[in-house]
Write a structure and sequence with these properties.
75 residues, 39% strand, 5 strands, 28% helix, 5-stranded antiparallel sheet, alpha+beta, single chain, 2 helices
């Protein structure tokens, strides 16, 4: 799965879209970082961590499977 598609899947989550709109209104650009160097294994599946950031600060982390079918919050 292309990395841009992984980020797009995270961007489309309703809570992320709402947060990004609020950041945009505040003049802050949202950033999405896919951490390929730190894959996570959960329940026998591999996930890529995606960090959602604004103004240089971490807002939330999500885990997305390489095929893009499974997205879950990072604990």
């Amino acid at each position: 799965m292309p990395l841009r598609r992984a980020v797009g899947r995270i961007e489309m989550l309703s809570e992320v879209a709402d947060w990004a709109r609020a950041m945009h209104r505040a003049g802050v650009k949202a950033q999405y970082v896919v951490r390929l160097d730190e894959p996570v294994r959960r329940s026998g599946k591999c996930y890529w961590p995606v960090e959602v950031r604004g103004d240089g600060r971490l807002w939330r982390r999500y885990l997305i499977s390489p095929d893009g079918r499974s997205i879950r919050p990072h604990d």
